[in-house]
Design brief:
three-stranded antiparallel beta sheet, 381 residues, Rossmann fold
Length: 381
């Protein structure tokens, strides 16, 4: 791992050089070799950490009765068609939502528009065009998925795997300002829903290098909670973060994030001494009930053979973390510090994380006109 971190740092320094540079080819080859070696060792040692038992309908009904107004939606692709099972206090209903191909295209388009809008170098006229396209894309998704998200509900939990997990569920017009959670499975929701303590055992906010407002964000978040600590500069190391992610409480991390579509277990967040890779999270100890990743893209997943979706956020959930807040697209620094500070204020004052994030993002949208690609994954703790 130390060797791989060194290669990542060297590769960052080579990014401005031409593609013909022999040093670039050597680094890429060495990185691929190390990734395969580490990945094989990691999966041999860890196995599957998540509880994959299927949930029974009786369990779901009992859980929904304990969460008045909650709606659970399980969305799948079957033979080129998207189907949704909606469960609420009145029972279960199957909805046919339409062909998968156009829906998938709308999802890709929305993410492309979000990337354009997050790039400050894009000219104003192109940004305006991307903003219009984003609005149209979200409205198109709303029309297709409305049968399972339109009917309200104080709390919407969506179980969606693969590319359906990339749907910006919390950004759909019908869900603006309403708590929306994307869960990896019904079982995860049943296990963790409502399981957060009234007061977290510990709150730690950390910042990796290279962010304009990263250290300020970490200090602001820590300042909102009694006896919280901020890790900035050389304190925010890989080892310290691995320790925190195996301990109870709330962990907030502002850092550069990177999703690796071809090797999702090598998705990473950048810390003082190098990247922390997703596969290093081994699920030891008692994991936090909430992890907030104020980082670009780390809410994304890639689908492995067999349909398993993997990425930084999904791996954290597999290790036993109750809920993860993460971005599914680039997250501008100035947006992150505003929204994260507000969400932590509401969380400290007693709001669960899903309504706190929904309110913070809706308030920011009302002021700036910019959508915030943050999503709660896991369970409404």
């Amino acid at each position: 791992l130390t060797e791989l971190r060194q290669l990542v740092a060297e590769n960052r320094n080579l990014q401005g050089r031409p593609a013909s540079d022999p040093g670039r080819d050597r680094l890429l080859a060495d990185s691929r070799r190390l990734q395969h070696e580490i990945l094989a060792r990691s999966w041999h040692e860890q196995g599957r950490l998540a509880d994959d038992r299927a949930a029974r309908s009786a369990e779901v009904r009992r859980a929904l009765s304990d969460h008045p107004g909650a709606v659970l939606v399980d969305v799948v692709e079957h033979r080129g068609e998207v189907l949704g099972v909606r469960a609420d206090a009145s029972g279960l209903r199957l909805r046919r939502l339409g062909d998968a191909a156009p829906l998938r295209e709308h999802v890709h388009r929305v993410h492309a528009d979000l990337e354009v809008l997050a790039n400050p170098l894009v000219p104003r006229d192109l940004r305006a065009a991307a903003a219009r396209s984003l609005t149209e894309g979200l409205e198109a998704l709303q029309r297709t998925l409305g049968a399972v998200v339109d009917e309200g509900g104080a709390e919407l939990v969506v179980v969606a795997g693969g590319w359906l997990g990339l749907v910006p569920w919390a950004m759909l017009p019908a869900r603006c300002g309403l708590p929306t959670v994307v869960a990896p499975s019904v079982r995860h929701w049943l296990t963790h829903a409502g399981g957060a303590p009234r007061r977290p055992e510990r709150v730690t906010a950390a910042a990796g290098p290279g962010l304009v407002h990263g250290e300020d964000e970490a200090r602001r978040v820590a300042g909102l909670w009694p006896a919280a600590s901020a890790l900035v500069g050389e304190q925010a190391t890989v080892g310290r973060m691995v320790e925190l992610l195996g301990s109870p409480g709330i962990v907030h991390l502002a850092a550069h994030g990177r999703h690796e579509p071809d090797n999702p277990l090598f998705s990473s967040v950048r810390l003082a001494d190098g990247p922390l890779f997703a596969h290093e999270l081994d699920g030891g100890g008692s994991p936090p009930h909430l992890v907030v990743l104020s980082s670009c893209e780390v809410g994304r997943t890639s689908v492995r053979a067999g349909g398993e979706a993997l990425g930084m956020a999904s791996v954290l959930l597999r290790t036993g973390v109750g809920a993860v807040v993460a971005a599914t697209a680039p997250l501008p620094d100035d947006t992150a510090i505003r929204v994260m500070t507000r969400a932590h204020q509401l969380l400290r004052d007693g709001e669960p994380i899903a309504p706190a994030l929904a309110r913070a993002t809706a308030e920011d949208l009302a002021v700036t006109g910019q959508h915030v690609p943050l999503q709660v994954f896991g369970a409404p703790v």
